[in-house]
Write a structure and sequence with these properties.
Helix 5 (66-83) crosses helix 6. The chain is an all-alpha fold. The protein folds into two domains: 2-63, no CATH class; 66-119, Arc Repressor Mutant, subunit A (Orthogonal Bundle). It has helices at 2-11, 17-31, 36-45, 50-63, 66-83, 91-104, 109-119. 72% of the residues lie in helices and 0% in strands.
């Protein structure tokens, strides 16, 4: 009886993993500026099928430039770190803090490395 009810609900469009995932990604992308790694992980925890997640993430990549989002976040974080009156930080410490911040936001290593290189105007790799 339960499975029939679920099938009826799906048929009427009340349960739609693809639409849910699209809306979730759009809302999280706008409000929290999360990277694709964090979005994928959150959707997996919600029970969305991997194929659906990969489709929605691919659609997002066509609409949102993740590097630009990460760059804007990193600039804001850098400004906060530099304005802190408690402590003056070295460039390597600033890079590490930004790296950790963007990692927590779910951006890929490649994106983070590109952003840090762009902000600090160099091409050295960071870990």
């Amino acid at each position: 009886m339960i499975s029939k009810a679920v099938e009826d609900i799906k048929r009427y469009g009340f349960i739609n993993d693809l639409e849910y995932a699209r809306n979730f990604v759009l809302n999280k992308s706008k409000s929290k500026s999360l990277g694709k790694v964090a979005l994928k992980q959150a959707l997996l925890l919600k029970g969305i099928p991997l194929e659906t997640i990969e489709q929605v993430i691919a659609e997002r990549e066509n609409l949102i430039d993740e590097t630009e989002v990460a760059f804007e976040l990193a600039q804001k974080k850098l400004k906060l770190l530099k304005s802190s009156k408690k402590k003056k930080r070295s460039e390597s410490e600033l890079k590490r803090k930004i790296y950790e911040f963007l990692t927590r936001r779910g951006f890929t290593w490649e994106t983070i490395n590109h952003v840090i290189g762009k902000i600090f105007d160099d091409s050295e790799l960071y870990i």
